[in-house]
Amino acid sequence: MSLFQVCVVGTCSLAVFKGLQLLLRKSHSFDLDGPDKGHWLLGNVTKLFEGGIEYCVDIVDRYGGAVRLHGPYGELVYLADPRALYHMVVKDQQMFEETDDFIMSNKLIFGNGLVGTVGEQHRRQRKLLSPLFSTTNMRRLLPTLHPIAEKLASTLVAKLPADGSQKEIDVLPWLSRCALDGICQCILGYPSNSLSAGDDEGDEYVEALRNLGPLISNLQMLRRFVVLVNRYCSPYWATKVLDLVTAPWLPTQLMRDVRELRRIVETMDSASRREFAVKKAAAEADDELCEDSRMPPSMMDIMLKANSVTSNTDQLTDAELFGQMNVMVFAGLDTTTAALARCIYLLAMNPHIQARLRSEIRDAMKSSEHQDEDDATPFAGLSYEILDNLPFLDGVVKETLRLYPSFPFMLRKTTKATTLPVHFPVRTRAGVETSTITMPQGSHAIISILAANRHKEIWGPDANEWIPERWLAEEQGRSAPTLGVKDGVRFPAVYSNMMTFLSGNRSCVGFKFAEMEMKKVLATLLVRLHFALPTDKEIQWKLWAFHVPVVKPPAGDGVTQQVPLNVRLAREEDFKW
Predict the structure, then answer these.
(1) CA angle 54, 58, 63 (to 5 degrees)
(2) Which of 461, 531, 460, 447 is nearest to 492 (CA)?
(3) Is residue 492, in this structure, part of any structural domain at all?
(4) Is residue 277 domain-shared with residue 331, that is, in the same domain?
(5) What are 453-466's pLDDT values in tens digits?
(6) 3-state helix, strand, coil in the chain (%, to 5)
(7) What is the pTM of this model?
């Protein structure tokens, strides 16, 4: 099949699909101002990705915190207003659910995990999982991360020239391997050892986890198709449809991606079931967690133990427990990798900030050497309390997560007709200001985490700038909790007044672990290594399901994910700021 034929077939299929959608679903209209409709078939919602961060923020600056956009299936609302988001994710969260395609596709990939359930089942799962990510458990898991971060640092050091000069290294795959080892060991108790494996080595399960994120990103437009197949086909015929679209005689890249995703899901399912069976057998054989073990228990160990002592009405089934495994790994792998890569890239762009952070970490290590002489904890390093309370490290991590949230957007649908209030008035189609948005039942809204975290009315005129110092209360002449608050108005959030990890019943339960892992890796790398931008390459961060770093042509192909940086050993002058 030629490229032209593929394009014709694809366009016709999408047109037919859109027609079916319009027949099966009532179209909704919103009396809000917004940009031109854009493409006749796809609308203008694709510009959120094509235009990048600048476009996503600019439309809020131009039209306010509630903007009318057009998608392939009708109009939807783009939201970045604090009061509207409070009602959507907290006060009236039962009226705004994840979309069917999101839930169904996640359930097919991950099973009955947290991202594939709704309603009472979701509530029971959160009730069990949320307490597991307590400060106490994070403190117990930190020693597990220490040798992994040290392995990453020593691996990068080993790649440097013996004379101490710099070398260009693509840090992205190594950060990914580090994040994978950290997640697998801490969450599953599974020694992935991907940092130790060669490029062509590693077990099938680990490779499946590494490749899952990019494939989901590439295939997100097929989620609607998944909903239709599952809604109108029996399990038998749904399987037949899947067999058809993954047939090897279909040569397009899209179909190759679908086949690869199916293989990855089957690999993950098989390996996860084996690991879950081992963990469950071990938990049943030992009623108590071994407190004097040299290595702390994994989150799976803690989860199984917590579930065994939960009341029968709230206990999770084996299928639900099993479903959490791959969910927790996936949720923390590509997100942490992207956040770490962006953070190190920003430090490479700002050597004075890198030097200040490096100096703070070294000073803390010197102090802890005297405080922890009698600490018998294996792989002690910096204690959890010290690591968590380094003010500039905290500012660097928070500012990176504010400006570059790993999930820039979240989609919601209304389960019943309602009215959303907005704090900052927006314009109607006629140009009249309004403080309410009518949301019909079945209508859709995009939560713009990206635009909310850069809202100038809340974060100030420099909201789009990366300024870690803004989190240092003593340098800003205010108390830390007031950051991200203007005249008593703030965004609903579980993390420092920003929407990065959302709030309400769909907030991220693992944000404390993600923050701890980022801090641990940064603290380990920066005291040993110095990072600078490459001399003849320009790194571009594309916006899709995640932030995707590529090298712009002609030095790169603009497609391959990579973060090449000049790396060398840290010198004494690199600690001076």
Answers:
(1) 160
(2) 447
(3) no
(4) yes
(5) 999 999 999 999 99
(6) 55, 15, 30
(7) 0.90
